[in-house]
Amino acid sequence: MRSIDLAPSLSLALSLSACGGVYTESGPQTSEGPDAATSASSSGAETDAPAEEPPEICAAPLSEAMDAAVLRGHLAALASIAEAHDGHRAAGSQGYEASLEYVESRLEAAGYATQRVPFEYPDFVLLSPSALEQVTPAAVTYSEGADYLVFKFSGAGDVTAPVSAVNLALDPEVTATSGCVVEDFANFPAGAIALLQRGDCYFRTKAENAAAAGASAVIIFNSGVDEDTQEPLATSLGSATQVTVPVVFASFPVGAALAEQAASPGFTLRVHVDGERVTAVDQNLIAEHPGGDPQDVVMLGAHLDSVPAGPGINDNGTGSATVLAIAEAMAACEPVRGVRFAWWGAEELGLWGSTRYVESLDQPARDRLAAYLNFDMVGSPNYVRFVYTSAGAPPGSAAVEALFNQFFADYDAVPAVAASLGGRSDYHAFQQAGITVGGLFTGAGTSKTAAQAEVYGGEAEAPLDPCYHLLCDTPDNINEPALLEMARAAAHVSEQLARDPAPLVDPASARPAGAEQLVASHGHADDACGHPSR
Question: What's the pLDDT band for 508 if we cut at 50, 70, 90?
């Protein structure tokens, strides 16, 4: 990549026509500073002088301080933590606690005072071992962990009943809704155990449709479309589910074997789940730059927890490492705005850390937040350069989007793709509270299009992150050049917002003409999506 011209400030970026700057009939609008000079033309008319550039706050552009070795080191540390703690850094675990300690120690070494902020969230625990067994015509016992796992927020019960397969697609080339629509259950025998296959909608939708049709228990098995969709997943129905029957997730081989026998006379299964909802407590980590205006704050955040299924190095070690690297580099800067950094807990269980944080802020505290920037999965191996769209976002968000787009225009002239604000990451609570939002993302389990592959390289029709929410989400799963690009963009926009206290006024359009408006999102386990790439 070529070197980056980081001179344009926020005020200038908002007036650039490439970013859809605000224009009047007489030309681009400018802001008149307190010392702005005016002069008379030969006709006697007065013209405004250009607004003064805000002062630099760092000795060198902050984006230049983003270093691949530093980011790599943070990711290696998080991976080592996961390896030492049962392979993950999930909320409520020792791995998450160790992750907090690591980030905390780095921040304190850089001179920050840190604060742990506790919050409550709903969780699910198993009170005794579960069971998935074939009862008749022959006894077969399946192994919890290897053959199946219990969905978080499953209902409880001990059910022995016949099995009814619902619109399955055992052939990888075939697509079937398998419980996504009510019509799939038109002939479902009430009291049977519903056998469903992953695909095309949320797991919760499948389970709720099955329970509404009279299923006494639900088995959802993996799709089997490739080697990454064979094993059972540690995932969730979401804390909002109303399902009261037992629900388990089986491997594709187990599901396919059960499907072959489901219609056999006398074939019955036992599904046993002994679990309950509990109130859990975890912590967010907050640090604030000692300089800047505490009444006018830009906030950067990333979730620090992983799913239980893996170490979560892309999701979301990359976002956490990016925010940490920016905080460390900005320690030597003198921001005009206040700058606050956050590492959220329990995102994978339902955005709980960020949601509880925003809920804790009174209106004056919310009003002091000029913008919130979110960084979640910014090193996907088959990446696309996504910038969160301002469509449907609070006022000021288009200005943030414009800054990201202008950075990439200056960086290599390759445009970003607009990613929807679908409520699937930690920006959501800020968005709902009317706070300006923005951020970056490089893709989860959805497939890269041919058009995206032409622009960004990589493999078309393959997942943007094939290890999304899986054990293989290790440092080997990271596209390091992509991560460095996104970290530099994040640092640049953070610096611009921190140095220029001008109000964020949305330009007419934040997206350059011709930019692709693809809706892209990724999910957290509390609202887990049942569809891999088919």
Answer: low
Contact 178, 206 (CB under 8 A): yes
Q: What is the mean pLDDT of residues 254-281?
A: 96
Bridging pattern class, strands 369-375 and 437-441:
parallel
Render pLDDT for 166-177 as a digit per residue (tens, 0 to 9). Answer: 999 888 777 789
Number of helices (H) and strands (E) in the chain: give both, helices first: 12, 20
Query: How is residue 7 written in tokens?
Result: 């001179």
Tell me if residue 347 is catalytic: yes
State yes or no: pLDDT of 47 exceeds 80.
Answer: no
d(CA 194, CA 164): 5
Q: In Å, how far are 11, 259, 428, 466 from 199, measured between CA atoms?
A: 46, 16, 25, 16
Cα–Cα dist 55/302, whole Å: 28
Q: What percent of the chain has pLDDT over 70?
A: 85
pLDDT category at 296 given cuts 50, 70, 90 is very high
Residue 393: both structure tokens together: 């976002």
pLDDT for the residue 505: 84
Cα(215)–Cα(101) distance, integer angstroms: 45
Bridge partners (DSSP) listed for residue 388: 419
Beta bridge pairs of residue 372: 299, 437
pLDDT digits (tens, 9 = 90+) for 420-475: 998 999 999 999 999 999 999 999 989 999 999 999 999 999 999 999 998 999 99
d(CA 351, CA 393): 18
Distance from C-alpha of 229 to C-alpha of 454, rounded to nearest angstrom: 27
Strand partners, 123: 278
Identified catalytic residue from 208, 231, 328, 347: 347
Q: In whole angstroms, what is the distance from residue 216 CA to residue 197 CA? A: 17
Q: How many CB atoms lie within 10 A of CB 22?
A: 16
Q: In what order do the strands lie in the sheet with 131-136?
A: 140-141, 131-136, 268-273, 157-165, 193-197, 217-221, 247-250, 148-150
DSSP secondary structure, 217-259, as one string: EEEEE---SSGGGSS----B--TT----S-EEEE-HHHHHHHH
